[in-house]
TrEMBL record:
Bias kind Low complexity: ranges: 1-22
Residue ranges of domain p-hydroxybenzoic acid efflux pump subunit AaeA-like beta-barrel in the record: 294-381
Keyword set, alphabetical order: Coiled coil, Membrane, Transmembrane, Transmembrane helix
Region (Disordered): 1-46
Segments forming domain Multidrug resistance protein MdtA-like barrel-sandwich hybrid: 94-288
Residue ranges crossing the lipid bilayer per the database entry: 54-77
Name this protein carries in UniProt: HlyD family secretion protein
Compositionally biased region (Basic and acidic residues): 23-46
Keyword Nucleotidyltransferase: no
Stretches assigned to the Multidrug resistance protein MdtA-like alpha-helical hairpin domain: 162-223
Coiled-coil regions listed in the entry: 133-181, 227-254
Organism of provenance: Rhizobium mesosinicum
Length: 390
């Protein structure tokens, strides 16, 4: 019992002291026996976990705690959101162009200036177009005078018709009397009671009255035709009046086009028009960025599973990271970006390689900051809350 209580290493040292020094042949055998004993001692030695059970338990608990914390962090700060750095500020920018040709007389705005709807951006010399308007108005007066003249001719023709009809009535009455008188004279001559001269006179009067009646009928026909001609002249004058009025309207429009104004509020960008410059119709004098801007975010199609319109969005502008913006998802484009590009992909040709597509998502911002300049093309980072936070 006493020897058993002595540690093994001390007993091994005592045996080495008591035993005689080995010879050259016995040395390898002793070393092999010692190594075997050491291996057996290592096999009998307990593991680190058995030697330090409390520390091992604490390490396991720490790993579990770290995993739980990581899961909670992922669940709170990563799982509910979808974000992308392929996003930018977008707007329906357009060019402000002249509708007519002429020399620029004034440019009352400057580059990057904010203007309201109706603000004058540029003016074109209006003198040539004012002359054209005055000339068109003169044509209107001429057409109105022609109408008045034609109406007077129509009235005169109507009076001439009445006069000719009256003369025709008188001629017909005289003709009827001449016929009756001629019949009486012819009967008197046959009965021997009348003279031959009186019969001849009655026949001559009848022929004269017949000619007068024919002349009266021709006068009525001529008066009617004159009235028709006057009415045709009036219609022509009315058509000329409409044409002249259209020319006046065109001239007024061209004169109004000499003043180029902003159709909506926004900013004047890339102002190219200058005083004294001659510009052609359709030539741009500046670019215009409306106040209505939004964010276009190109999300991967795998990020759209839970994305719906109306979900809240946090937006950070790369140029102004200190301005945190809030917005919402307005709409998701029904198709990938490449489907509406100038040269869309043709997957049916060549070797097909599946690539995750990106889909534009329109995001509207509640309130854009007013103390900084924000325009199309500026990079932003939107973060959409697509799932409820646990």
């Amino acid at each position: 019992m006493r020897d058993f209580a002595v540690p093994q290493n001390q007993r091994a040292a005592a045996r080495q002291q008591q035993s005689p020094a080995p010879t050259k042949d016995e040395a390898p055998v002793k070393e092999a026996e010692n190594s075997t004993e050491q291996d057996q001692e290592k096999e009998k030695r307990p593991s680190v976990i058995r030697r330090h059970p409390i520390a091992a338990l604490l390490i396991v608990l720490a790993l579990i705690a770290l995993a739980a914390i990581g899961y909670v962090v992922w669940l709170i700060y990563f799982h509910p959101y979808e974000t992308t750095d392929d996003a930018f500020v977008d707007a329906r920018s357009f060019s402000v162009a002249a509708k007519i040709s002429g020399y620029v007389s004034d440019v009352p705005v400057s580059d990057n200036q904010h203007v309201d709807a109706g603000t004058v951006i540029a003016k074109i010399d209006p003198r040539d177009y004012q002359i054209a308007l005055d000339q068109a108005r003169g044509e209107v007066d001429v057409a109105k005078a022609a109408i008045s003249s034609a109406e007077a001719q129509i009235a005169a023709a109507a009076a001439a018709i009445d006069e000719a009809k009256a003369q025709l009535t008188s001629a017909e009455a005289a003709l009827q009397y001449a016929k009756d008188e001629n019949n009486r004279q012819q009967q008197l001559v046959k009965s021997g009671a009348g003279s031959e001269q009186a019969a001849q006179q009655a026949a001559s009067t009848l022929r004269q009255n017949e000619a007068s009646t024919a002349q009266a009928k021709a006068s009525v026909t001529s008066a009617i035709k004159n009235k028709a001609a006057a009415e045709a002249q009036r219609e022509s004058a009315v058509a000329n009046l409409h044409q002249a009025e259209a020319q006046v309207e065109t001239a007024e429009q061209n004169l109004s086009y000499t003043t180029i104004t902003a159709a909506q509020p926004g900013r004047v960008v890339k102002l190219s028009g200058a005083k004294g410059q001659y510009i052609q119709a359709g030539q741009a004098v500046s670019m215009f960025v409306p106040d209505e801007i939004w964010v276009t975010a190109n999300f991967k199609e795998t990020q759209l599973t839970d994305m719906r319109p109306g979900q809240p969005v946090d937006v950070t502008i790369d140029a102004y990271p200190d301005h945190a913006l809030r917005g919402r998802v307005d709409s998701v484009q029904p198709g990938s970006g490449t489907a509406f590009s100038l040269l869309p992909a043709e997957n049916a040709t060549g070797n097909y390689v599946k690539v995750t597509q990106r889909v534009p998502v329109k995001i509207v911002i509640d309130n854009w900051p007013q103390d900084v300049a924000i325009g199309p093309g500026m990079s932003v980072v939107p973060t959409v809350t697509v799932r409820p936070r646990n």
